[in-house]
Amino acid sequence: MRWHLLSSMDPTYIARTVFIYALKPLRISMPATRGAQVRLYQRFTFDLVPGQEPLKLHTTITISPAGGLHVRVVPRAAQGAE
User: Would you write out the chain's pLDDT as a tens digit for each of its 82 residues?
Assistant: First the structure.
């Protein structure tokens, strides 16, 4: 019975509502992702593997390295262990 109301509603209202509910999981997951990135950057350093320069770039809306980057993950030294 409620579906007959959709024909009389503004289509932009429906689109905005769907968009808002589609973004809700992102608003929940983004802080967790940022927290995980912070922990990784606190515990490790990331060194570029030699032989990848000059970088070949792939340009779309953003600029990114074509084929990605190969990095070496190095654990940070424990504080006070120097």
Answer: 455 555 565 666 666 666 667 767 666 777 778 888 899 989 999 888 888 878 888 899 998 988 888 889 999 886 545 4
Q: What global pTM score does this model have? A: 0.49
Burial of residue 44 (number of CB atoms within 10 Å: 0-12, 13-18, 19+) = middle
What is the number of other CB atoms lying within 10 angstroms of the CB of residue 67? 10
- Which residues make Cβ contacts (< 8 Å) with residue 71, sequence separation at least 6? 46, 47, 48, 49
Q: What is the chain's percent helix, strand, coil content, to nearest 5? A: 50, 20, 30
